[in-house]
Design brief:
This protein is of the alpha/beta class and about 280 residues long. About 35% of the residues lie in helices and about 20% in strands. It has eight helices and seven strands; from the N terminus they run ααβαβαββαβαααββ. A seven-stranded mixed sheet has the order 3-2-1-4-5-7-6, sandwiched between helices. Helix 2 packs across helix 3 and helix 5 packs across helix 8. The N terminus and C terminus are likely disordered.
């Protein structure tokens, strides 16, 4: 699907083909720069948006198939569970943020939900095999009207955002009262044996396999980017501060992956869109 073909429902979307593209953070949760760490492939501040966009564009054609290989197919199972936690009714409007090539969107379509996808990478959108509307845009400046959506999902992309809190604020703004948000991402096992096994696979094997089958730098970036992800307690606090209630945190495979879900509380209109 070409950028000029991207369409959405006019009564909920404020504008199309949004610029600037979604920025990706290059600092750890404590604010320290990670770009110059030993062995790091994380780009410098002024280069990151362009470098990471190009990286995702480059791996887009094999991104989904490699995800299945590298997670032994568990990523699809985790996404299905995430949609169960989302818990919206049939026909609900759901935005999948950082939709990639459409994993979540196809599941939404199968459940008769009105899915829409947003991503900063045109390469990902061009490789998305979906019938749902697609938007090239910024997760921290969502192109939707206040209280216009029933649900928001995001899969394995929180660590790529410059400001996770701002994304939560934007999600809160576009969700109706009672709207739901469900997020799945990587985690860190607590059990020592699980933690060791996870480190060997995710931090050692994944970059090698990904490098052989796709792009070496991109799959070195993948495990390194987890340094940007705040603790689960911090993420839950961010959700609460953004107007969400009934916040739940669940883990899979001993903590190797984690899921957050929450409900939008009584709607309070933000005075303006982020970035305006």
């Amino acid at each position: 699907m070409l950028e000029e073909e991207i369409k959405v429902d006019d009564h909920i979307c404020l504008y199309k083909n949004l610029e600037p593209l979604m920025p990706l953070g290059n600092r750890s949760p404590d604010g320290t720069s990670l770009a110059n760490s030993k062995g790091s492939v994380l780009p410098a501040d002024e280069e990151k948006a362009a470098v990471v966009e190009a990286m995702f564009d480059k791996i887009a054609s094999r991104y989904e198939s490699l995800n299945q290989i590298l997670t032994f197919g568990l990523d699809k199972k985790w996404r299905k569970i995430t949609l169960k936690y989302l818990g919206v009714q049939e026909g609900s409007r759901v935005l999948d943020v950082a939709c990639g090539t459409g994993d979540f969107l196809r599941l939404l379509e199968k459940q008769n939900l009105k899915g829409m996808g947003l991503d900063f990478s045109l390469g990902m959108l061009q490789n998305a095999q979906v019938t749902s509307p697609l938007i090239r845009g910024d997760a921290q400046n969502l192109p939707f009207k206040n209280a216009s959506l029933d649900g928001v999902t995001c899969g394995f992309a929180l660590r790529n955002l410059t400001d996770i809190s701002e994304f939560f604020q934007e999600s809160s703004r576009v969700l109706k009262t009672g709207g739901r948000i469900a997020l799945v991402d990587v985690g860190e096992p607590v059990n020592p044996l699980m933690k060791a096994g996870h480190a060997i696979w995710f931090k050692k094997a994944v970059p090698i396999i990904g490098g052989l089958l796709s792009d070496k730098t991109a799959y070195k970036y993948l495990p390194q980017s987890t340094a940007y992800l705040p603790s689960s307690k911090k993420i839950m606090a961010m959700l609460e501060d953004s107007g969400f209630i009934a916040i739940r945190h669940s883990t899979f495979l001993g903590g190797s992956a984690q899921l957050f879900s929450a409900t939008r509380s009584v709607y309070t209109q933000r005075t303006q869109l982020a970035g305006n």
